[in-house]
């Protein structure tokens, strides 16, 4: 059983390897890992021998691993050294300096050093260091920083994350392929997924996004910057792109399609469901900075001749297809906006009561060409959850919900806090 105490990879790299009689064998270049368990097991060391060859020293041949030297159980003449295989995973080559997802904090971080420890009979990777101390330790100037910070009675802290809270963004590392942390990333909040995608390397974004379930991908896509949205939509498989767009609210789908080339947008729209494509095309005619560009066409209207009970019955049938039911909009025989119902008024009113008796009649509505900042001001001023958009004939075209304009309503400091919280 190998003798070992806790240490960092940077403390082991370059350490001399000697046999039991202290004859030099070589120096440590890297560490071989076996993945698949909660904490990866060290299976051997990659060493550079005294005659310049790279060989594998299996863990079973090692007697002691220390920061001063590594010693073997047998003599140099009887030592069995192997060759590196194509599928072997190496700590320095495949993990150090790589990006990782810290799934406990939904962050993308860089591995600056790696901590090893004895767990039972095995040597295992137990944590990664993502802080400044890991970097200066690798540079060999840890003592200098400790001295300088010690003058002010401070210390450069370790920033360790347990390996069980971490997932690599590269999985079949030996083949250079990308591994997506399926069980972790797709369970994060869509805003957190967007943060992860935004902060990884460009060539990894598509792989992460393409691995997400379509519903999760649809929710995350709208949280991304327009430029990243366009890149992802243009690079993923067309079938998946269509599935994602069909799961998005029409206003969000219109926003995304408005940021890609007209040719690609037209191609996707031709392949989408006819009704949804028609709604999206209608929204894309409006400028982004207007009420028409903000609105969604997913809202609920009911005729004014219904009772409370009839409206509730209708809601049970149609509500699953609506983005929001903050308000139910009432229209007259000519489809003009006549009023609005709140859910509270429906719940507390007698079933037989006509809705014209309980609806809000003095409606606040906006034209489709109103500036988006003015729209935000009206929603804020009147404390509305949604605001209808109507044409010149007072026919309702769509609604703008408060979440569509929240960034205009919040002051800059609160807006930054909201972005940090997701």
How would you explain this protein's 3D organization?
There is one protein chain. The chain has 422 residues and is of the alpha+beta class. It folds into 3 domains: 3-133, no CATH class; 182-285, Alpha Horseshoe (MgtE N-terminal fold), CATH 1.25.60.10; 301-409, CBS-domain (Roll), CATH 3.10.580.10. It has 19 helices and 20 strands. The strands form 5 sheets. Strands 1, 3, 4, 5, 6, 7, 8 and 9 form an 8-stranded mixed sheet that branches. A 4-stranded antiparallel sheet has the order 2-12-13-14. Helix 15 links the parallel strand 16 and strand 17. Helix 6 packs across helix 8 (214-221) and helix 8 packs across helix 10. 33% of the residues are buried.
Please provide the count of β strands: 20
Give the domain tally: 3
Radius of gyration: 31 Å
Q: What is the tally of helical segments?
A: 19
Q: Low-confidence spans: pLDDT under 50, at least 5 residues?
A: 171-183, 411-422
- The structural class is alpha+beta
Distance between the termini: 48 Å
Indicate the mean pLDDT: 83
The helix content is 25-40%
């Amino acid at each position: 059983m190998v003798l070992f105490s806790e240490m960092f990879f940077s403390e082991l790299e370059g350490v001399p390897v000697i046999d039991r009689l202290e004859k030099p064998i070589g120096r440590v270049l890297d560490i071989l890992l076996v993945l698949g368990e909660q904490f990866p097991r060290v299976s051997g060391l990659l060493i550079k021998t005294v005659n310049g060859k790279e060989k594998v020293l299996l863990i079973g041949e090692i007697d002691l691993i220390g920061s001063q030297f590594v010693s073997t159980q047998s003599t140099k003449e009887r030592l069995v050294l192997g060759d590196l295989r194509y599928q072997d995973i190496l700590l320095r080559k495949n993990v150090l300096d790589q990006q990782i997802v810290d799934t406990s904090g939904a962050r993308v971080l860089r591995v600056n050093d790696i901590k090893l420890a004895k767990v039972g009979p095995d040597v295992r990777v137990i944590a990664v260091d993502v802080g400044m101390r890991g970097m200066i330790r690798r540079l060999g100037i840890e003592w200098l920083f400790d001295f300088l910070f010690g003058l002010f009675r401070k210390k450069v802290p370790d920033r360790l994350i347990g390996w069980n809270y971490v997932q690599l963004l590269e999985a079949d590392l030996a083949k250079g392929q990308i591994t997506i942390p399926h069980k972790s990333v797709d369970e994060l909040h869509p805003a957190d997924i967007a943060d992860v995608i935004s902060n990884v390397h460009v060539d990894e974004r598509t792989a992460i996004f393409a691995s997400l379930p379509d519903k999760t991908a649809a929710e995350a896509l709208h949280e991304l910057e327009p430029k990243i949205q366009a890149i992802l939509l243009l690079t993923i498989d067309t079938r998946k792109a269509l599935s994602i767009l069909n799961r998005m609210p029409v206003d969000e789908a219109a926003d995304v399609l408005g940021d890609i080339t007209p040719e690609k947008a037209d191609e996707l729209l031709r392949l989408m469901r006819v009704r949804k494509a028609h709604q999206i095309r209608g929204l894309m005619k409006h400028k982004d900075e207007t009420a028409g560009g903000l609105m969604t066409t997913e809202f609920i209207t009911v005729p004014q001749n219904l009772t409370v009970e009839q409206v509730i019955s209708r809601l049970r049938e149609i509500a699953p297809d609506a983005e929001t039911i903050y308000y139910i909009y009432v229209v007259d025989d000519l489809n003009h906006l006549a009023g609005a119902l709140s859910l509270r008024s429906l719940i507390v009113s007698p079933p037989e009561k006509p809705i014209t008796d309980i609806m809000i009649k003095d409606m606040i509505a906006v034209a489709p060409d109103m500036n988006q900042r003015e729209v935000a001001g009206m929603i804020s001023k009147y404390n509305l959850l949604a605001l209808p958009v109507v044409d010149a004939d007072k026919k309702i075209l769509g609604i703008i919900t408060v979440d569509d304009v929240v960034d205009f309503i919040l002051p800059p400091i609160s807006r930054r806090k909201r972005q940090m919280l997701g």
